[in-house]
Amino acid sequence: MLFSYGDDLDEWKYSDITISTCERISDKVESTLQCYLFEQNNYETWDRIKCDIDFFLCFMKMEGILHEYSIDVGSTDSELKNKNLHVNLDLVINLDEDIAHMPVKLTFNLF
User: Fold this and answer.
1) For residue 73, what are the β-bridge partners?
2) Closest to 75 in 3D by CA, of 29, 108, 27, 26
3) Which residues make Cβ contacts (< 8 Å) with residue 26, sequence separation at least 6?
4) What percent of the chain shows pLDDT beyond 70?
5) Global pTM value
6) If you write DSSP's letter for every residue of 23-80 in order, what string do you get?
7) Strand order in 2-4's β-sheet?
8) For residue range 40-93, what is the model confidence (pLDDT) as tens digits?
9) Which domains does the chain show, CATH number per domain?
10) More confident position, 9 or 97
């Protein structure tokens, strides 16, 4: 898993909130991907993975933890040749009323 923060140094004071949220999401995504370890690397599997992750992130959005998110699941041509797939998450995490949101990008690879 890789994740990155925005460029503003003031955002780092909220890193505990962001890191704990990212860890919670990472644990869920990694356990979801383990369920698909021996599945075919095709559009049907990608859609099922995306639906599973979307369900969890939608719940986090309803809890007020996330402001918004997007999910990209699939394989590039080189990933297909190597039997890999990727999951890219773009998240906007709610922090508090003063600084409303923090953008975070998470990337997962299944080999």
Assistant:
1) 87
2) 108
3) 1, 3, 106, 108
4) 77
5) 0.80
6) HHHHHHHHHHHHHTTTS-SSHHHHHHHHHHHHHHHHHHHHTTSEEEEEEEEE--HHHH
7) 2-4, 101-110, 85-94, 66-74
8) 999 999 999 999 999 999 999 999 889 899 999 999 999 888 888 999 999 888
9) 2-110 (3.10.450)
10) 97
Tokens of 107: 């990337």
Q: Give the tens place of pLDDT for each residue, 73-85.
A: 999 999 888 888 9
Instruction: Give the helix/strand (H/E) hosting 16.
Output: helix 15-35
Query: What does the block give as tokens for 74?
Result: 């699939």
CA dihedral 44, 46, 47, 49 (to 10 degrees): 120
Residue 105, token pair as written in the block:
């990008």
